[in-house]
Automatic annotation (TrEMBL):
InterPro entries on file: Ntn_hydrolases_N (IPR029055), UCP009120_prtse (IPR016545)
Sample GO molecular function, one term: peptidase activity
Keywords, alphabetical: Hydrolase, Protease, Proteasome
Gene Ontology biological process terms, A to Z: proteolysis
Protein name in UniProt: Putative proteasome-type protease
A GO CC term attached to the entry: proteasome complex
Length: 251
C-alpha cells in the first residue's frame, strides 16, 4: 500500500509520500514515489505515484524518454499543467494496456497519480490522475489531494488545511497526516519524502528525506502524541462526573 498527498495553499505547494512497497508480508521494499521534473525559471512538475509498481516505474521512464527524445507531447512542450496531467493520464493508460496484454495471471496493473506544479507565471495547480486517465482538481474548500491509504491521514487535513495556512505549517500538517497513517497501517512506511515549493520560485524547493530514526521526524511524532493527550484531558466532562467529584468522602 501507499500514502501520498499534496496540499495547494496561497504561498505554494506541499508534496509528501512514503516509500514502502508491499508484494506480500515476506516481500517488502522501499522505492521513491516522488518524482520531479524541473526546468529552473520555466516550469516545475512533481509526480506522486500509487498502485502497481511496474506501471508507475514505466510511466516515469516514458515521461523521461519523451523529454530526452523531444517527442511531442512531453512535459517540456505542454502549455499548461492541465495539459500535462492529461498527457500523464494518456501515458498511464497506454502502459496499463501494454502490461495487461502480456499478463496471464489477472494482475491488477492500475496506478493513480498526483501531479502538480507551476508553469511560468500561471497559478500553481495539483491534479489527481485516475487509472482510467481522467483527472480532478483539488477543491477550494479542501485544497489537498490524497492517493493510496487515505483514511487515517484525512481527519487532520480536513480540520486544518485552508488556502491561507502558512506554507511551513501546511508541511508539518502533511507530516502529521503521514505519521498517523504509518502508525495505523504497516503497509505504509518510511522513508518519508517531503517537498515544499514556494509559489513563483520555479525551483526545486526544499526537499526532505526522513528516515525512521530521523531526529526531526521523531520529535514531531512525540510532540503530536503529547498534544493529543493534552487535548483529550481538556475536553469537557460529562455532567455526572462533576457530581461524582463533589460527592462527600465517607466518614
Amino acid at each position: 500500500m501507499t500514502y501520498c498527498l499534496s496540499i495547494n495553499v496561497d504561498r505554494g505547494l506541499i508534496f509528501c509520500s512514503d516509500s514502502r512497497t508491499n508484494a506480500g508480508m515476506d516481500n517488502i521494499g522501499s522505492y521513491s514515489k516522488m518524482h520531479t521534473f524541473i526546468w529552473p525559471g520555466d516550469r516545475v512538475f512533481v509526480l506522486l505515484s500509487a498502485g502497481n509498481l511496474a506501471t508507475t516505474q514505466a510511466v516515469v521512464k516514458k515521461l523521461n524518454h519523451d523529454i530526452d527524445q523531444t517527442l511531442v507531447p512531453n512535459l517540456l512542450s505542454v502549455g499548461s499543467i492541465s495539459e500535462a496531467a492529461d498527457y500523464v493520464g494518456m501515458i498511464s493508460t497506454q502502459i496499463q494496456r501494454q502490461q495487461a496484454t502480456r499478463d496471464t495471471a489477472n494482475t491488477n496493473f492500475e496506478a493513480t497519480f498526483i501531479f502538480g506544479g507551476q508553469l511560468g507565471t500561471a497559478t500553481p495547480e495539483t491534479f489527481m490522475v485516475y487509472p482510467q486517465g481522467n483527472y480532478i482538481h483539488e477543491s477550494s474548500e479542501h485544497p489537498f489531494l490524497q492517493i493510496g491509504e487515505t483514511k487515517y491521514g484525512k481527519p487532520i487535513l480536513d480540520r486544518t488545511i485552508k488556502r491561507e495556512i502558512d506554507l511551513e505549517r501546511a508541511a508539518r500538517v502533511a507530516l502529521v497526516s503521514m505519521n498517523s497513517t504509518i502508525r495505523s497501517n504497516v503497509t505504509v512506511g518510511p522513508p518519508v519524502e517531503l517537498l515544499i515549493y514556494e509559489r513563483d520560485s520555479l525551483s526545486g524547493g526544499r526537499r526532505l528525506f526522513l528516515t525512521d530514526d530521523d531526529p526531526f521526524a521523531h520529535e514531531l511524532s512525540e510532540r503530536w502524541n503529547k498534544g493529543l493527550i493534552l487535548a483529550l484531558e481538556s475536553l469537557p466532562v460529562f455532567s455526572w462526573e462533576d457530581k461524582l467529584d463533589k460527592k462527600p468522602s465517607p466518614s
